[in-house]
């Protein structure tokens, strides 16, 4: 198995218990997550060693986050302590016709986003691990964080390690006219990356590519090969999701590799907690790539992992490799005794 | 925006946490509601000022009710304190094939139902507000309450204000052979009213009208115009509801106005808490009428408001005007960040 | 061991979780209790058979009460189903300088207080059981209940069974100038009773006796022998309680029997839930009398039972005979493994 | 109505609150159940007297189990106290594509499985009750328990009482190559039994019968009559279940009696808690047989009882006879006020 | 009664349920508080009208805060909506030898601390209300907030209204060497104020005064008259608190007015939630001053109000005037029925 | 800092929420603990690396235990997975005069107590760590576990590492006449050990020593030096505890070293959760010995650590070194902001 590190912020998730609003309730459940947290935690459950490169405040909230990450199976040796705050968000679960709502508190001043990352640590990490994961959310933060992200990426690249980049473009983080702002940073990251998560919308909006096809499936087939070629990517992957009226979602995953598209079956499933399911998909793809699995197996595995992530509370996938393999077979089981 | 008052009882809702029965559980969640509470709270969220004309006991339960009404955005200036009890009901949530159950405690001796309402307050309210809402549940209580209800209705009518009456006929409250008993009181209220909520069943059972049509839709089209004409009503509105086998309901709203029927699309949606959804529909119609919106917009808005009310815990609608307008567009959204 | 029945109302206790108020909280814990419930449940834990003579509504609340009584170890064969409501009360726990508050809902219209009790059942019970327990709270309800109480008491007396009466005078139930109203009814019950729970205040206020002594202890010693003699009582018992500033209470129990007073040591103890502790004391005395224990052992047992009842949540004592005997020894134990 | 006893273990169910895993959560809900518990509790709700023949430890867990069984309406007179442990299992509720998981603790050393059952008690029970229920889970425990089970069964048979046997074969309890081990014991129980719950898979795997038909329905029709004839059974019953992708199950019940098959309609319904639903089906069949109802009514009643059991939390059915009869009519009801 | 406004931030309190730490728990209770919130809410319970001058974000957290403030009885007309965040803090309750811990999130960027307050609103408020309350915590925030605070104070002063200032110096907010920084701002506020809350430590540390007395009581008597004279204050008040080993605190209140000190009795009491008790004391003093009560009554009332505030969950006092008057009498009551 | 491993069982603690009994409640909180868990977790908070040598089942309960241990800061590399069960105990919290109760489930068949420990792992651990901790509870289990314990102890001794042994004699585990049974095993462990936790009662009862002194303090001073000399112990330590009537305990710690006794001050403190406090004391002593602190500092540190452990929920100490040092100063602090 491999050692995989993620560079990214740990956030506190403050969830109103099902299905009340913040005005109705007076209690919250909390946990700690983040794209990087979710990905390396999932990989730890598949048998890899998962590390996080991050910074947390040296206060009771930071302590609680560290304890939680350890509980998730993540190694915390590369997490420094400093700064003053932990970014957080409030989640109100929707139901049926009522959408879930996320309200962020100030993450700009968080420990991670104000950290002075130590290049010596980056060098050590680059030497020690097999793959590093980055995320477009981190890219949206500020110049210092962006710079650190690229430094670490280049160090890993130079050391011959696999660099993973999830585009994960969030319009609300970049602000108005943001695509212009984001484009050069995304291009830099794509230059560094080996495995990339994105779809045709990222290609069109962020990279400014144009498609002659009208529907999403066609655009995907048209644009992703161009991106893969331009940036010499080992693999590009992503999903198309559809939200149905009966509390179910439908999802189809793709993996483009060595000039070929591989698609999962379309899965339709009941949704309990949607947040973090994209990270489960990503971890399934990364696991397949790290294991050199066949692309078709990998994309089916990733789609099943994403499906299962919709059935657990919290942002972070909990399924083991065995759980995902069982779910891939598609037959629903009675109580497992 | 307008000032709208409702005359009605505030009840304590004591809910067994999902989906246990009273024999199974040992804890309850409580809130305070009532048709009037639900309607003016919803209108307050649409930007109006919502008042309640009611009486609550001067004890910790009355204090808790006042605090809760204020939290809902309701103005409590017209609520007097006195009497001894607050009416209450226990709600056991059903699931699928098992229906929800409501068990009432003694509401007949409640503060509201034993109150001596002050005509001077009624006159002041009639002068101050733009519309008053009444409900058939209140009409079922006792002679004193009925008399007060009519006095307030007439005072509002005389002051040129809009009188709203929701038929809301509850067989269990009127007892055996109750239609005979109820009919004259309903007729009196219809004489006073401008906006009325009812459907063909009320026309047939309470008013004793006969229909040649066999199905509900036909009877509605046949009888409602007669009612509207007989009582010179500005608007008559209501819904037809269907309970489906998969924890969803289907609902279609109607609004009859100026000689014409307007129907909403049929909406089918997952149900989280069914209680109070009729009041959400009523508040949507009232909002449209107070705003002079087009009848079609109003009936679609009201149906969407009713749909959203099925997705929140508690009797009282929580949606803002923006929430309802979004839901009217009919597209299901992913997590709103 | 004996068969003991209690005649009395079953009430629903709705408790705000510690130590919030009704305005602050949104949830309640519920249980079912009553003086009779508490006494026969405690006796059942001491090895007797405990029955309740009562009526409960034939609805989900009545079902839940029956289930709860069975869980407490009470036999429910003599409980009829009918009427419409169950009396209930809300309890807000105080803390330190803030006293607990009890708010009653309408118990006057409860199933028990509107029941038509069947004399045939009373005769059967009188023949079947060894002792019947009555309470002054029941005496305060209405003429029908009072009459039923006396009929059952006389039937038991006539059958040679032990009649127990707990004065339990509640000023708020009798209303203004209530002592005059209550006196004849209390006198009738004292004529019937064998074992009576009261103290000097009951003698002075209800029975209109006068004491030359100034302090409570002296008045007790002066008046109780007169009461015992006048009504030919087998035993009279009660407690003196002191509320201390540090969340502890001090309590001393007395038992007057065959012309002699017997006092327990003064016990001082931390209080978790004060409600129902008097009933624990009564059940300790009844147990001793039914077992023909020595008066000193009985009064110490009863005081220890009362002390333990302050340490458990809910109105109803939970201690077994062994628990009380251990507590009588007065030594505090570490965790019992 | 009848007196029905069940011989079987009481287990503690420790359930992670919906829908977390043991690693995620830090709290559990607990209750007490078991096939026998579920069956006689359901029968008690239909108006019969339900007894349990079992043993529980004389410690706080045993006390809690006794209290819980009494709350369920079960008579506990035939439960002895002794041994050291109560068997227990942990339940993690699945959601959609994620199956529920049950993890057992050591039940082999439980009070029930190490009890010395007293033949005098068996004789008394056999004389006193009308029917006794046994279960294949008990048969899997150990030689002493198996022997006691057969002794009690023969005593009941000899006393002319109805013997009920639910095959309930659990592969994990018998271990590898278990069918060989189980066969003679099942055959002995079938010799004793009058009413048997099983389906074609039991006939094939346990009894070693062969079927020429390929599908389950055909095999059922082929094999069950042979079993009924061979063991001279009064009635054989069971279900076929299908797990659907949308959190619903489909179920069809059968009852073979006097040479004829009777089938319920296929019911499809939303599932809240699947555990124990088979016991609800069994209790419906037993109720019909004890009441001499028509086979078609009985099988429809049993299927509706099973459906309702999927809608309540916990293993133990809660529906009354009225609830089941209403559900048999198949129309979904709005809130019952 | 009077109209009293407070100028200050509304904070979200996120409390770990008793008595766990953030690392141990996974749930929080939340409420909304702040010095101004606490003071005007308490005054509203004494019969005054309480207003808040503040700003809250226009998001679900702001909505929840508004609803909560309304529930507390506070008028929210002067609260503007804007900015991005609500300040918040996490509270871990200590027990006995383990102190409670408060961890702040970033309040510097909160809506209140980044608001552009409108002078027209200040003028309107100054004209409308009778008294305005300010707090030293607000003074510690930033130059804009400080400037707004002083503008509103001067507007109120000019309009002849009572200006109240609570020194409430928090070292952690001002940072290193902070007294120098704070002094001129405190002096400006003292120039404006009529009623001031402080004690000898504020005089020494913030104002740089020196005392020849060695003990706190002597220093208080020496310095407070100088402060009152220098700034021409109507009243100066405060408390001395002692933390005892047995989960109780001891508190003595003082009020200096017209050249004389008035002290409350020393109160010793069990503590349930210490946060916000100082604000209860302040509101008692303000109530007395607004009512022109005798200074001795006022200081005893304020101390009793502070004592009661230690007995309720949450920062915000809940006692009514009647509750405080009862507590002033000092006798502990049994359950109030 | 050092590497410390503990050899011992991980148990599941199932706690009834405060202060209900198992019969009253329907929910439990769970965590994972054990003497070894508590000690190495506490040491991890003081800055050491804490390892556990144990076995856990390869099922969801084992997974949950591993996750929990990681959350506590414990390294789980030396924990093997196998066997079938995890030992568990139920805790009902007492209050005041009512003692806490612990009910064990079957731990004899647990994974740890049936494990085949691998000598190669023991050798590796002995080489890798600085100190190993053993406990008398493990010694009471069975011959295989005892043998493994001694093998590991000797391996560590041979490797020159510090061997720690906590006598922790539990009468209920050894059974009747158990001292005879236990003595040789304790003697063997004392031969191996360097640091021992015991007091005069262990010397008298287990080792069969006799004391001429009558009181515990005198016996301690008489016997411990003999034990230390006989077994050549580096240090012997323990506590004397007194349970007071007001929910407080008093505790005095001792450390005997190099021929001298060192005693802590007597600490008296409010108790929230008593379980595990002895392990906190032990970890304080071990920390001092590993750090070569002065004996007086060590014993005061250990006593303060024990005191703090009584103030947190759960068996496992949570205090950091800083927390303990603060508590050693003995002054009670207000809210720490």
From TrEMBL, chains A, B, C, D, E, F:
Show where the Carbohydrate kinase PfkB domain sits: 1-316
Q: Name one GO molecular function term.
A: kinase activity
Task: List the Pfam families hit by this protein, alphabetically.
Answer: PfkB
- Keyword Protease listed: no
Q: Which residues form a coiled coil?
A: none
Could you tell me which InterPro entries the record lists for this protein?
A: Carb_kinase_PfkB-like, PfkB_dom, Ribokinase-like
Q: Which UniProt keywords apply?
A: Kinase, Transferase
Q: Which family does it belong to?
A: Belongs to the carbohydrate kinase PfkB family.
* Designated name of the protein: Sugar kinase
Q: Which organism is it from?
A: Paenibacillus septentrionalis
């Amino acid at each position: 198995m491999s050692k995989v590190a993620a560079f990214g912020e740990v956030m506190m998730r403050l969830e109103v218990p099902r299905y009340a609003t913040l005005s109705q309730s007076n209690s919250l459940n909390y946990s700690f997550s983040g794209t990087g947290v979710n990905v390396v935690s999932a990989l730890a459950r598949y048998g890899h060693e998962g590390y996080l490169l991050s910074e947390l405040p040296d206060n009771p909230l930071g302590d609680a986050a560290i304890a939680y990450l350890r509980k998730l199976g993540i190694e915390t040796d590369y997490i420094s302590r400093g700064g003053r705050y932990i970014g957080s968000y409030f989640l109100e679960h929707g139901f049926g016709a009522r959408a879930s709502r996320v309200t962020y508190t100030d993450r700009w001043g968080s420990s991670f986003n104000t950290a002075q990352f130590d290049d010596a640590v980056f060098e050590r990490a680059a030497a020690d691990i097999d793959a590093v994961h980055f995320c477009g959310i981190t890219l949206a933060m500020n110049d210092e964080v962006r710079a650190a992200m690229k430094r670490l990426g280049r160090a890993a690249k130079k050391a011959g390690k696999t660099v993973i980049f999830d585009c994960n473009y969030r319009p609300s983080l970049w602000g108005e006219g943001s695509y212009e702002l984001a484009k050069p940073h995304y291009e830099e990251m794509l230059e560094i990356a080996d495995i990339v998560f994105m779809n045709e919308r990222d290609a069109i909006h962020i990279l400014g590519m144009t498609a002659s096809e009208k529907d999403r499936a066609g655009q995907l087939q048209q644009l992703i090969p161009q991106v893969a070629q331009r940036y010499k990517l080992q693999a590009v992957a992503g999903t198309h999701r559809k939200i149905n009226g009966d509390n179910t979602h439908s999802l189809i995953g793709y993996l483009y590799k060595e000039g070929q598209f591989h698609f999962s079956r379309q899965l339709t499933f009941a949704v309990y907690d949607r947040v973090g399911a994209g990270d489960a998909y990503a971890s399934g793809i990364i696991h397949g790539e790290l294991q050199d699995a066949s692309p078709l197996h990998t994309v089916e595995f990733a789609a099943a992992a994403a499906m299962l992530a919709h059935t657990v509370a919290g942002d972070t996938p909990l399924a083991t490799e065995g759980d995902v393999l069982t779910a891939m077979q598609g037959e629903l089981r009675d109580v497992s005794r």
